[in-house]
Amino acid sequence: MASPAAACSLPTHTAPSLDDKPADEAGLRRLRRRRRRRCICICALVTLGVLLLLGVTLLVLFLTVFRVRDPTTRLLSTRLVGLAPSLTQPNFTLLLTVAVHNPNPASFSYASGTTGLWYRGAHVGDAQVDPGRIPSKGDGVVQLEMTVLTAGFTKDMAQLIRDIEAGSLPLDANARIPGRVAVLGVFKLNVVAYSDCHIVVGFPDMEIRGQDCRDHAKL
C-alpha cells in the first residue's frame, strides 16, 4: 500500500532549458522572412498587373484617341496684291486664303511652314506659313502671301499662251507644316502635316476653277 506522502505528491513539470529559446527565436525569424517574401511577391504581382493594365490602356488610346487623322485643306481664294521687286523679270505677290479642318480630338499648334508652287513641272512660287493653331475637331483659316516667279511661267511660252487662251492655269502646290497636337491637355505629340494639291486657276479673274488635295499627317 502506498504511503500517504507518495499519494499526496503533486506532478512536477520540467522547466524549458536555455537551449530551447534560440530555437524559438530562429523559428520566429523564419516565419517573419516567409511573411515578408509573401508580401513582396504580392506587391510585385499587383505592380505588374497595374503596369499591364496601364500598357493596355495606353495602347487603346494610341489606337483610338491618339491616332492622328489626316486634316483636310481647301483653297478658298487667290488675290493679286502687288508686285515683288526683281532684277530680271517682274514677279508678283498672291494672297492665298486656305481653309483647314482638323478632325482630331486634339488641337494642332503649328510652327512656321513652307509652301511651294509649280506650273507644269516648273517651280514658280514660294510662301511662308506663319505659326498658328487649329482647335480640336474645328476649322481654321490660313492666309499666306506667295511670291510668284514669272520666269518659271515663260520657260514654255507656247504652252503658256495656250493656257491663257483657254482661260485657266493648272498649278500644283505642296505644303509641309510641323507642329504639335495636345491630347487631353497633357500629352503633346510632334506631328508634321503635308498637303499636295492640284489647282486650276482662272485667268485673268484668278478664281478657283477646280482643285484636288491630298492631305496627311505623320507623327
From TrEMBL:
Task: Give the organism, scientific name.
Answer: Triticum aestivum (Wheat)
RNA-binding found in the keyword field: no
Annotated region (Disordered) at 1-22
GO cellular component assignments: membrane
The primary site where this protein sits is: membrane
Q: Which GO terms describe its biological process?
A: defense response to other organism
Q: How does it sit in the membrane?
A: Single-pass membrane protein
Q: Species lineage, top-down?
A: Eukaryota, Viridiplantae, Streptophyta, Embryophyta, Tracheophyta
- Any idea where this protein resides? Membrane
- Record keyword Transport present: no
Q: Which InterPro entries match?
A: LEA_2, NDR1-like
Recorded hits in Gene3D superfamilies, A to Z, give: 2.60.40.1820
Transmembrane regions listed in the UniProt entry: 39-66
Q: Which UniProt keywords apply?
A: Membrane, Transmembrane, Transmembrane helix
Q: What is this protein called?
A: Late embryogenesis abundant protein LEA-2 subgroup domain-containing protein
